[in-house]
TrEMBL record:
This is Orotidine 5'-phosphate decarboxylase. HAMAP family: OMPdecase_type2. The lineage of its organism: Bacteria, Bacillati, Actinomycetota, Actinomycetes, Streptosporangiales. Gene3D superfamilies: Aldolase class I (3.20.20.70). SUPFAM superfamilies: Ribulose-phoshate binding barrel.
Amino acid sequence: MTSTFGERLSRSIGKYGPLCVGIDPSPRLLADWGLPLRDFSFTVLEAARGVAGIVKPQIAFFERYGGRGLLVLEELCTAAIEQGFVVILDAKRGDIGSTNEAYASAYLSTDSPFAIDAITLSPYLGVTSMLPLLDAADQSGRGVFVLARTSNPGGEDVQCATSATGQTVAQDLLDAMSRRNAEAARRGVLGSAGVVFGATVPTDGHDLRAMNGPILAPGLGAQGATPADLAKRFAGCGDRVVVTVSRAVLEAGPDPASLAKRIRLLSDECREALEHVA
Ligand SMILES: O=C(O)c1cc(=O)[nH]c(=O)n1[C@@H]1O[C@H](COP(=O)(O)O)[C@@H](O)[C@H]1O
């Protein structure tokens, strides 16, 4: 790819706003909509087209169907990229270095079978173990979102524990991504090494501004966060936040017009909340 993930993401946020449509085909929604996995997924993509610029399929909902599900995911990612979406694959990968090399060739290399822009990573085997993934992303113009502070209750047990540096584990991860984004910062563009920071959790004691990378913020809607929370938590970095929403979008389906209407409404709310605090 000729541009970096950070550059493509910035352009997309500028054009469509910060909303990312989460494609989470849960068993309940598939039953409610009365659609098979492929039709469900493409219905969501079609509804998002021209309304939101970013989509995030959650791999577990496709893995449930084994090889057939992964084929649908591959088709969906390819179609989304061809249609100009920024595609974040939510796979939360992370292992020892040699296995991460295999994950890197699966998801973050130029010849990866999955056409995606970025992937979510679980960093709890250590930052050094993630180097094959971070380097592959840099080389192929892709990006990562490392779980720093997750949206779920109880995440603080690990993420807010004090590390050997005397700060929280989450802040250490923010610092590590900040170092990865230093070159982009010198060029005055958004870096490609992002973090996940839930819209449901306080940011106190964590410096999101210095990182120069994108922030994937789940939690709006079904997990209880509101647009006011976005404005409060992400002041000073609102132009780099990607607000990912799954259930609060998908509950408006399966009618494509209702889905598109919900996406537009949430997109407007998120843009409004964040543009004042950029
Ligand atoms: O990485 C993620 O996307 C993620 C991180 C996190 O801390 N919390 C979180 O909810 N997510 C994902 O974001 C989506 C949230 O779904 P809703 O709560 O339905 O909007 C799900 O696909 C989760 O797996």
